[in-house]
Amino acid sequence: MLSKVIIPSFMLVAQTLAHQNLHQFWVNGVTPGYQVGIRMPPSNNPVLDVTSPDIACNVNGESGVGVAVIPANAGDTIQVQWDVSTHPGPITHELQGPVADVTKSTGSGTWFKIQELDYVNGQWANEVMEANSGLFSFKLPANLPSGQYLLRSEMEALHASQTINGTQWYIGCMQLAITGPGGTCSPTYQLPGAYHNTDPNIYISDFYYGFTASTFTAPGSAVATCVAGGGGGTKTTAVTTTKSTTTPAKSTTTPAGPTTKTTTTMVTTTKSTTTPVRVTTTTARVTTTTAKTTTGGGSSGGAPLYGQCGGAGWTGPTTCAQGTCTYSNAYYSQCI
Questions:
Q1: Among 321, 324, 318, which Cα is nearest to 336's?
Q2: Claim: this prediction has a pTM higher than 0.70
Q3: Which of 11, 36, 74, 269 is buried most, with the most CB atoms less than 10 Å from its CB?
Q4: By C-alpha distance, which of 245, 221, 216 is closest to 88?
C-alpha cells in the first residue's frame, strides 16, 4: 500500500531520475558490447500511446537492419542493463519468433511473455534493479524452436498512471539467433492490440492512495508455458514376413517289369523374406558460438574490452587492457 503522505518527496525524486533506456545485455555472462544487438531509440523518452506500433519495439524500432543478431541457446541466462530509474512499476520480457530474418521484422504482431516481475516483498521491479545498478537476469525457455527472435524488454512506469495515457512505457528490443530443441509456447498476445489505455493495470486512478500494489499484474497475458514439440519420438520395428510353400507329393511309377518302384516325396520349402525398414534419423546440429574478448595493447591487469571498469560500489579493475574506461552512469563505466 502506497501512502499519500509520501507523494511530494517521491515525485521530486522521480523527476530527478526519470527517463531510461536499455543499453546492454549479456548471454551467459558474455556481452556482445555496449548497445550492440539492440534496436536503440532516438531518445530516452517514453512511449505513451499503447495503440501505436511504437509499443512493440519503441520509436524507430520497426526495423533492425544494420543491427547485429546475437547467438544464444534455449535455456540460456540473459542479463539486461537499464538506466537506473525511480519510476515504480514492473519489468517483463517477451519473445517474437522464430522468423526467417529478424532484422526485417517490424515487431508488430504475436508475442509470448517469458518473464514478469511486479511488486514483491514490498518492492517494485525498478527498485530491485535500482539496488543492482540497473541489472536484471532471467532465463530463456528451454523448449524453443531454432530460429531468429526479437527479445523485448519492457519497463512500465506507473508514477503518472492516475490519468488516461499517463502511464509511461520504456521498451528495448534485442535481436537473437536461438538454437533450441523445438517446442511450442502459449498463451500469446498481440502488440499493438493487447493493451488499452483504460485497462486497470494501465490507468490506476488511486495509485497513490488506496491502491494495493501486491495485487498488480503487468499487462499482456500470463507468462507462457513452453513445452517440447513432436511427442516422444517415433518407434520403429523391423517387419519380417515368412512365406511357406508346400510342393505336392510327386508320385513316380516305373512301368511294369521285373521290379516296380514307387517313390513318394513331400517337399516343404520355407522362404523367409525380410522387408527392410528404412529409418531416417535426423540429427540436429547444435552450434554454440561463444563471444571471445581479446585484449591487447594495454596493461595486462586492466578490465577487458566491454568489461566494467568503474561505478558506485565497483571493486574490480579501473583501467582497461583494451579500450578506454568510459563513463555510462553513476553505477557503471565500461571499456569501449
A1: 324
A2: no
A3: 74
A4: 216
Mean pLDDT, residues 287-307 = 49
- Name the residue with cell 522468423: 99
Distance from C-alpha of 323 to C-alpha of 306, rounded to nearest angstrom = 8
Distance, in Å, from the CA atom of 180 to the CA atom of 176, rounded to the nearest integer, reads 12
Backbone angles phi, psi at 212, to 5 degrees: -100, 100
Q: Which cell is 188 given?
A: 500469446
For 269-284, how does the pLDDT look when each residue is reduced to its tens digit (9 = 90+)? Answer: 334 334 343 433 333 3
* Residue whose C-alpha cell is 521491479: 125
pLDDT digits (tens, 9 = 90+) for 21-78: 999 999 999 999 999 999 999 999 999 999 999 999 999 999 999 999 999 999 999 9
Do 153 and 126 contact (CB within 8 A), yes or no? no
The residues near 45 (Cβ < 8 Å, ≥ 6 apart) are 19, 59
The DSSP secondary-structure symbol of 93 reads: E
SS3 of residue 12 by DSSP: helix
